Amino acid sequence: MAVTILNSLWSRPSTFFRILVLIWCLKWNGFFFCSCRLLDCPLRQRRKYIHDLFHEKPGYFELAQQLNIEACEASPDNSSTLARMDTFFRNACQSSCEGIMLKTLDVDAGYSASKRCDSWLKVKRDYVQGLGDSLDLVPIGAWYGNGRKAGWYSPFLMACYNPETEEFQSVCRVMSGFSDEFYKEMKEFYSGERILPKKPVYYKTDEQPELWFTAEQIWEIRGADLTLSPVHHAAIGLVHPSRGISVRMPRYIRSVPDRSPEDCGTAADIASMFKAQTRKMDVSSEGQE
User: Are 160 and 231 in contact (CB under 8 A)?
Assistant: First the structure.
């Protein structure tokens, strides 16, 4: 995949893309130093080689920001360490990063390409309760699952409500955060008369799920951030003239009981959240045709 991307960028006439490719190649060649393979070296040593070999030039070549927590400081009772980590994480989010990576420096700290392991952990803003806003959305459709999810519904098509037009406008597909038991419950719940023969005129989306549902439940959904979408119709016309708003990397949190579907998040709510989010999007040029 990386080679394909590099070849694609290199074939472009723009000098800008050639510079990007050059920097990327230099960065990854740092795993070999004086003909020595560094992949099995601990992160602390590999990082030292990178810092010794390259000199930063702001705006041209910059190394990722980092915060070192030594073993003697790594305690859940160490308020100073917790404060430093919290500040670092929040600064990353405010700089339009999705989150941070936690990695061991010395123990089991070799680099395993394309593998998940116990020596590193992703922490994104949507993983942290109370840091990011969530949306109350209504499932209006679904696709049939594949592989392990065969026989269940996955993903689900989620929508907000626009009281001005009395429409349910699609926001995203969601397929994360569900338990096997939940899948079974939803397969039983969305059956019979709750499966519609065709898309209602008040469902607004360019998605084409295999099944359309009656609007009945409300689910709390949390994602990385909000972005413009040519497919989803949430808040269309409120932020961009022809594009709606969607949620990146959405995840199911919980079902919201004792509320009617029209009491879910509104198009205006989503437009306000989009405008207020830290990760800004350029709406002046995106999607103009």
Answer: no
Residue 226 to residues 36, 80, 122, 169, 234: CA-CA distances in angstroms?
44, 33, 20, 15, 11
Total number of domains constituting the chain: 1
Is residue 150 assigned to a domain? yes
Residue 189 inside a domain? The answer is yes
Residue 31: DSSP 8-state = G
Section 32-61 average pLDDT: 78
Q: pLDDT tens digit string along 107-142?
A: 777 777 767 777 788 877 666 654 457 899 999 999
Q: Is residue 236 part of a domain?
A: yes
In CATH, what number is assigned to the domain containing residue 258?
Answer: 2.40.50.140
Three-state SS at 200:
coil
Distance CA 61, CA 155 (A): 40
The residue among 46, 9, 41 whose CA lies nearest residue 24 is 9
Residue 225 lies in a domain: yes
Q: Give the whole-angstrom CA distance, residue 154 versus residue 219.
A: 15
Instruction: Answer whether 169's CB lies under 8 Å from 232's CB.
Output: yes
The answer to whether residue 10 scores a pLDDT higher than 80 is: no
Contact in structure between 111 and 31 (CB atoms under 8 Å): yes
How far is the C-alpha of 240 from the C-alpha of 105, rounded, in Å?
A: 45
Q: Identify the domain containing residue 148 by its residue range.
A: 135-276
- Per-residue pLDDT reduced to its tens digit, 204-257: 999 999 999 999 999 999 987 899 999 999 999 999 999 999 998 899 999 999
pTM score? 0.66
- State CA 110 to chain mean position distance: 26
| 3-state DSSP assignment of residue 89 | helix
Instruction: Name the residue type at position 169.
Output: Q
